[in-house]
Each structure stands twice: as C-alpha cells, then as structure tokens.
C-alpha cells in the first residue's frame, strides 16, 4: 500500500514540488557577471580529520565523532554544533582562522550530530531536538568536563544548543559564559522557511514507510532525496561562491542519509525551545543570520535577538543559510567578539545591532 503510494507520487507531487521550489529559489540567486574565481580549490575541506579525535558514546549508545583543537587545559572551551544535513567540516574556515587568532587560550571542540557525518545512524524515535541537546551535554561531559564554555550552534545545531541549555540550566549558570545562535530559531518551521518549502506528500509517505514498512524505504529514497536535497542546495548560498565550495556543500548534503533527512525534518518543524531563552538571558550572546536565508528566514533571528537582552545581532547582507562558509570573515569576527566578551566577563554587547557583508 505504501509502496504504491510512493510510486504514484514519484513522477507527480515530488518532482513538481522539487522543481518548483528550486526554480523559485534559484531564479532569485542567479546573477549576471564574470565567473567566480575558484579560490576554494586550494582548500582542504577534510583537514579536520587530522585533528585530535575521539568517539563519545551518547547516553543511549549512539557513537558521536569528535575532533579537538587547542590545549586540553586551555582556560576556555568553545563547542561548535553543526546543522541539518551537514557535518563538523562545515566549520572549516572557523577552525582554521580562529585557531590562529585564539592560539593556546582556547580549545575548540567539534562533533558530528547523530545521524550525520561519522557519527552513528539512529532510528526515527531517536531523531528529536531534545535528544540532540542531551548529546551536546554528553560530549561536554566527556571531553570538556571543567572550565568555562562558549556554545556555538548553526541551524539545527543552534536548536541543539537551546535544547541543552533548557534541560541543564544549572550547568549554564555554572559554566556557560557565551552562546552563539547562527541561522537558527527557537520555535518550529512548519509554516516558514524549510518547512514551508518541503510540505510534500512524498516526504510524509516516506516518513510513514520508515516507521511501518521497511520494504518500501529503498524505493522511496530517490523520490524523497529529489525533493529535499535540491532545496537545500539552492538555499545554501545567497551569492555566487567558488565552485569548489559549492561542491563541498553539495557533498555534505548528498552524504546525509535520506532517513536522517526525513526524520530530522519533522523534528525541525515541531521543535519548541522557547523555554531556553530565559536560561541564557543573562549570558553573553550572539545572534547571526544571512538576510537571504531561505531555510530559516532572517526574521526568526530578529525574534531571537529581541528575546535576549544581551545579544549582539549581526545581519550578513546577501548571505544564504551556510553563512559560515559563504562569509567566513564576518562570522569569524563576530565569534571573536563574543569570545572576547566572555573572557572579559562583559555580558552586554555594544553596539547590539550590526550589518556586515
């Protein structure tokens, strides 16, 4: 029954929705001008694999791949949490430049969220934002059990950070001195951004198949990937970027299991971490987003900043969803300011609103 339903949608709703969504997004992004220099071809986007690494077992047994840069006894640890259909290498430019700026004063921790990158696959029941917050706490307990922390989350990673702070408020009060929320939101996306663009019966049917009819899953993989992946690719960047960088972003999306794609999509649509905002209200915070973000619209970041009295709000002109890859200098500068505030004990940001890019 489910297989037939998926088959019937393969040539209809799925392809129509994917083409329409990509056409709508891509048409806005096309720019006339000379080819963009392929500066990204000089980048080794996989260089993080040579950093100090380990595997942390989450509380429910999922292995989480972790990489670290900087001394184990550094006075401050910054933990980076990646977003939906990405992996820790999306922080490539931050790892390289901020390690140079911060030197031995900061330890940087990166990890792949469950179902992503080198971390373990998960069942549908293990794909929710609250569980991602517990994973973040597990990583911190394993590799950074002492000292002050700055938490940096992009997209779904920002939701993970909020979920962790909501569930472990005492740890926030004792250890968290800074929080960066990039291209993210505290509440669901069912009617805006990614949720709106991916409202499609093929996705819903595949989700049902994963749970109730495993035999239908293999057939539906191509259908659902054809709906979700093109939208994510088209929404990644707001400007023309290096072909090598574009290929790297596309590869991260392609490498993500379609089961992960579908099951975490529902988590993104339904999550609500508004209760986390009072927990970090007295913490130095950064809210950053591109104003051409089609996955999580810029107004979601404005709402976050309005709810956080000590937030520096950074608007990156023309940036798409992968702002840390598209405008790394602007993101690095903003994170550097946050870390300096955290190290100096300055909670309030001045000025509180910036437009860059």
List keywords for this structure.
single chain; 357 residues; alpha/beta; Rossmann fold; 9-stranded mixed sheet; 9 strands; 46% helix; globular; disordered N terminus
CATH architecture: 3-Layer(aba) Sandwich
- Helix % is 40-55%
- Give the strand tally: 9
Mean pLDDT: 86
Rg computed from alpha carbons, rounded to a whole number of angstroms: 20 Å
Distance between the termini: 51 Å
Structural class: alpha/beta
Task: Order the strands across the largest sheet as they lie in space.
Answer: 1-2-4-3-5-6-7-8-9
Report the CATH C-level class.
Alpha Beta
Strand content: 15-25%
Give the biggest sheet: 9 strands, mixed
List the topology elements:
Elements: H1 2-10, H2 13-29, E1 52-57, E2 63-69, E3 76-81, H3 92-102, E4 106-111, H4 129-143, E5 149-154, H5 156-167, H6 169-175, E6 176-182, H7 193-197, H8 201-212, H9 217-235, H10 243-255, H11 258-270, E7 284-290, H12 298-307, E8 311-316, H13 323-326, H14 328-344, E9 353-356
Parallel strand pairs: 3-4, 3-5, 5-6, 6-7, 7-8, 8-9
Antiparallel strand pairs: 1-2, 2-4
What does this structure look like?
By secondary structure, this protein is α/β, with parallel strands linked by helices. It has a single domain (43-188, 246-356), classed as Alpha/Beta hydrolase fold, catalytic domain (Rossmann fold), CATH 3.40.50. The protein is built from 14 helices and nine strands. It has a nine-stranded mixed sheet, sandwiched between helices. Strand 1 (52-57) and strand 2 (63-69) form a beta hairpin. Helix 3 (92-102) crosses helix 14 (328-344). The protein is globular. This is Pimeloyl-ACP methyl ester carboxylesterase.
